[in-house]
Every structure is written in C-alpha cells, then in structure tokens.
Amino acid sequence: MKNSLIISLCAVVFGLLAGAVLMLATGHNAVTGYSYLFQGGLKNPERIGNTFATASPLIFSGLAVAFAFRTGLFNIGVAGQLLVGGFCASVVGLNLDLPKVVLLPIMLIAGALGGALWSVIPGLLKARFNVHEVVSSIMMNWVGFWTVYYGVQSYIKNPSSETESKQLPEAATLKAHWMTDLFHGSYINLGLLVAVVVVIVVAFIINKTTFGYELKAVGHNRDASEYAGIAVNRSIVFSMAISGAIAGLGGVALYAGNASNIQIGILPSQGFDGIAVSLLGANNPLGVLLSAIFFGLLYSGRGFMNAMTDIPPEIADSIIAIIIYFSATSIMIERLIRWLIRRRANAKLNASQDGKVKSSHVEHD
Amino acid sequence: MWNTIEQIFPYAIIYTIPLLITALGGLFSERSGVVNIGLEGLMVVGAFAGAFTIFKLQAAYPNEGWVLWAGLLVAVLAGVLFSLLHAFASINLSADQVISGTAINMIAGAITIFMARNMTGSGNIRVNGFSPFDVPGFSDIPVLGPLFFTKTYWTTWLILLILALCSFVLYKTAFGLRLRACGEHPHAAEAAGVNVKKMRYIGVMISGAFSGLGGAVIILTYAGEFTGSVAGLGFLALAALIFGQWRPLGVLAATLFFGFATTVANVSQVIPSIAVVPPIILKVFPYVVTLLALMVFSKSSRAPKAAGEPYDSGKR
C-alpha cells in the first residue's frame, strides 16, 4: 500500500516533468504554463467547484475500471457504458414527469442498468466462451456509440439541433442550488456526492465482504479459486456487471449533471481516462478518488492556461498519458527505489564496518 | 445490383488497405508474443508524422511526387520509434502489455494533437494526397477490371506486395519460424538458440512500421487531413487480426469484410437497394459480426500461446 503510493507519486512527478519538457520543446515557458494550469483549477471557489465537477465522472469511470481489475478483468468498454448509461437515464428523465427526489433515483437506476447491460455481454462472452474482454468490450463501445447516435436522433432529438438530445428539465438533473451557491456559480452537482457514496460502497464490498473476497481471489488465481469452490464464471459476470453499473452511474453524472444533454457522435473520453485514474490510484477506491481529483484539476485548469498562454490544452492529456506509461512501467520505479535503498544500506554498512567488509549482495533480479 | 457493386468496390478496397497493413503489423507483434493494442496510437503517430512531413515539404516543393513517398517513409520511421516505447515496457520491464498498449494509444492521441496545434492552431493538417488512377490495359478486362483496376492507388499495390512478402517471410524463412516460435513457446525457442527478446523487439517494431504506414495511407488516400484520430481503425485492425486467426490470408479476408461493411454503411443512403435497411443495423453490423465470430472461434482459437505473457527465461 505504502509502496504503491510512492510509485504513484513518482509517476505523477515524472509525468509533470515530461510535460514541462514538452512545453519547453515547443517553445513555451513551463513555469508560467504550470502556474496558470494550477491557478485555473484552484484560484477561486468557482474554479475549485469546477475541478470537483470535472473529477466526478472520472471517479466513476476509474472505479469501474478498478473494480473489474480486481477480478483480473480489463474493462476497456467504460466509454460505451458511460454513453449508454447516460442515454438510458436521459430517456427516463425526459419522459417521466415526477418530483426531483423520486426521479433522480430512478434515473440513477436506469443509468446503472444501461451500463451493466453493456458490460455484462463481454462478461458473459468471457465466462462462457473465453473471449478476451478487451476486444469484446471495444466492440461494445462502437455498438453503443451507434446505438446512442441513432437512439438520440429517433427518440429524444433536440428540435433545434441535429446533433444533440433535448435539454433535461431542471427536475431531471443532478444540479443543486445549494452546491452551485456554495461554490459561487460553479457547475458542481450532486454527481460528486453520489461518486463519494459509491467509492465507500465499493471499498466496503471489496474489503469487507465474502463476495468481494471471492472476486479478488478470482483475479489473483482463477484455477485456485475454482479449486476452492468459488464459482469463477459467476464472479466474472458479476464483476463485469457491477463495473458497468458504476460506469453507467458515471454516465448519469456526466450527461445529467455536468451537462444536461447528450452530444451525439462522441465517445466520451472520460471512459478511457478511467483506465488512467484506476492505474494511478493503484486500483484502490480511495486512490481512485484522489487520482480522479488530480486529473480533474489538470482538465479544468487547462482552459485557463490556454487562455493566458498559447500552450495547447492537450498538454493536460499528454501529461496524463505519460503518467500512465510510468504507472504501467512501475517496475522501473520499483527498481530505482530498491537500488537507492540498497545503496544507502551499503553505505551505512561500509561506514560502520570501516569499509572492511565488501558488499556481498548479489542481485537476484 | 452489379452496378452498385462496381461502384462501391474500389472504395471498399481503399478503406480496406490501411486496416490490412495495420492488422499485418499486429500479426507480427502477436506472433512474436507481444499483444499490441497500441495499434490505434501507432496509426495516429504515422498519420501525424506523414501529414507533418508532407505539409512542410509541399510548401517547399509543390507538385512533386516524391514528397508523398518521403512522408510515408517518415511515417514508418515514426511508427517504429514510437513502438519502441511499447517494446521496452513489455519486453524489458515485463509490464502488462494491455496497459502499456493503452498508454501508447493515449500518449499518441494527446501528443500528436498537441504538436499539430502548435503548428496550425486548429490541430488539423491538410495535405494533398495521392490521386487515384485506372491501371492501363487491365481496367478494360471484363468483370475484374472495374473491380480491381479502376480508381486504385499506388499504395494499394505496395501494401498488397507487402502482404505477399509477409506470407513468405512468416512461413518460408528461418526468421519467420523463429518469430512464430517465440510467440508459441519462447522457452523452446531459447533452448534452440533463438534470442527471444530480440525477436520480440523485431515483431513490435514491424507492427510500429506497418501501423505508421497504415495511418499515413489513410491521410494520403481518402482522408486528406490529419485530425488527431483514426476513428477506432486500429482497434478494428486488432479485431480483424483475431477474426483472421493470426494468418496473413485470414487477415486479408477479415479486413476486406470490414472494408466492405463500412463502405456499405457509409454509402447506404445514396443506394436505393440498401437504403431500406435501417442505418443503425449497417453501422453496428461489423462489430456484432466480430463478437459472433469471436464466440464461434473461441473453441478453435489459434492465438499464439505465449502472446501477452512477459518472457522470463528463468520460469518453467
């Protein structure tokens, strides 16, 4: 746990350094770039609120990826699950005329079911036919993309625009006046609170229940789990379904919280960022929460940076992508840390023994 | 009906070619034992490098043909260089190959737009690509002429030549045998004196070269503009690789299928006999068929046995 924290921090530092190199290489001043980037996300209550709002869909998508990872599954279909979840919730929100307290839970359930439907198919294919979930969930992304594309056009099209859905009424969005006021007009919304609740629930499921233990066991060793009497195939299907349901909730936060309609023809990038969030957070719910907020900061600050300097906003995406590469190659960082520790230990040893004993450590890497 | 087929066939081929070369690249990587889902990103890198080079060169040397070939060459080199990131992570550092590939996709998508925006502001790079031509003599052959020899590009023939070479290299040379051995049973290969890490590096670098070429071909044939993505074609190439069961001719058949399905979906509105089918069916058709094919092939999958596993020569 402590080790993974150090690795994540190292990855962040390396990512920021690489971002600075990128800025310098393209003829920009990295110090002013970063100062505007962080000011843009933190300068005043409104910007802080926007950072949290940007982070909330990322919390869901990161949690979705992390949950599947725990069972040894790579859910790369979060983007499609977000989209379908958001679409289902929007259809419900536009067609039911109910008070907000009743409508919002129904929308959240609809979103979760939509996301789960989209992820349970790769889960079933994996359990029943041993089809690799990466490929099948990528296919489901595109099926979802086109389903929502034509679904929006056929059922909930905005009369004044060809490429977006109708605006959700006030009662069908996660926006809340008290939160907007608290953060001085930010677009922060209840999505953040739902996200925090889901983080706690997922942490509980993974760490404190038999069900969560079984999922983790399957992730560690499929054969041993089967031998121990765990229904492996059932675990795979459940894990994918829950992962997709979390993603579907994220879709509600994205399309009925941060936004209030769906733009067609866009596969939400938050889905792929979920992989980054999960990796940086070491697949741990609390880690996911923190890394999502960090990425939210980068994403919400980049607009301000772009307005104040001429650094393209994609610097934020580049930094995140590089952080992921460093997380993926964390073994490099681990080796570096181990080497540093050993060097210090050797130095101490040599000093205390007056340099007589030659280090006889042989590397067993 | 025949008329329709005659009309869309050349377009289907144009669409197939970048998929084909990218999937072939993936084939070399996976046959050597490294899963590469970074194909999408490598295509983007190739598309950017090609567009960038040609954009700069066309300003200096307008209307000269060699400029386009220079762009393709740079795209290939950029693909190779970028693929080294994946090779290093998955071969030397035993990283999870799927995650490393995802990182490649994200880095490529972000950095190329970042660079393009520094150049043009909008992030789009527009270039003049190849012009299609009818092969003289051959295009008059009945039936085959209109299908294969009209509106073709030189790149199409180049890539078909590469396909033939790949089949030969993979199945008829010692190098091909060694490469395949590294993907099936790396320990046996090592025992037989093959340098597994080196072979895997070569496999990944070939996938970088071919994907880079594929990305640039998109720009120079039907796209004409770099926009920062290749719209999921790299993932489709990956699916075609599985669909084609990791064999060059299988990959050719699979990519032709995808090329056709996509072209039909794209032109459906203007062709009355197809326009009756709801467009959503046409659009999701290739993906649903891939899912079904994955199910059907799951029992008899010929996936390279060691693909995706980091090689550890001490492990037995």
Mean of all residue-level pLDDT scores of chain A = 90
The number of E-state strands of chain B comes to 2
Q: Which protein chains make the most extensive interface, counting residues with beta carbons within 8 Å of the other chain's beta carbons?
A: A-B, 44 and 44 residues
CATH class of the largest domain in chain A reads: Mainly Alpha
User: What is the molecular shape of chain A?
Assistant: globular
Report helical residue fraction of chain B. over 70%
Helices and strands of chain B: which structural class? mainly alpha
Describe this structure in words.
Chain A contains 15 helices and no strands. Chain A is mainly alpha-helical. In chain A, helix 1 crosses helix 14. Chain B has 316 residues and is an all-alpha fold. Chain B has one domain: ABC transporter involved in vitamin B12 uptake, BtuC. Helix content of chain B is 72%, strand content 1%. Chain B has a two-stranded antiparallel sheet. Chain B is globular and about 60 Å long. The mean pLDDT of chain B is 87. The chains are: A mainly alpha (365), B mainly alpha (316). The interface between A and B is large, with 44 and 44 residues.
Topology readout:
The complex is a heterodimer of chains A (365) and B (316).
Chain A: H1 2-25, H2 30-42, H3 45-70, H4 78-95, H5 100-129, H6 133-155, H7 177-182, H8 191-208, H9 210-220, H10 222-227, H11 232-258, H12 269-280, H13 285-308, H14 315-328, H15 330-352
Helix pairs in contact in A: 1-2, 1-14, 2-13, 3-8, 3-11, 3-12, 3-13, 4-5, 4-6, 4-11, 4-12, 5-6, 5-11, 8-9, 8-11, 8-13, 9-11, 12-13, 12-14, 13-14, 14-15
Chain B: H1 2-31, H2 39-60, H3 66-92, H4 97-120, E1 125-126, H5 144-148, H6 154-172, H7 174-184, H8 186-191, H9 196-223, E2 225-226, H10 233-243, H11 248-267, H12 272-275, H13 279-297
Antiparallel strand pairs in B: 1-2
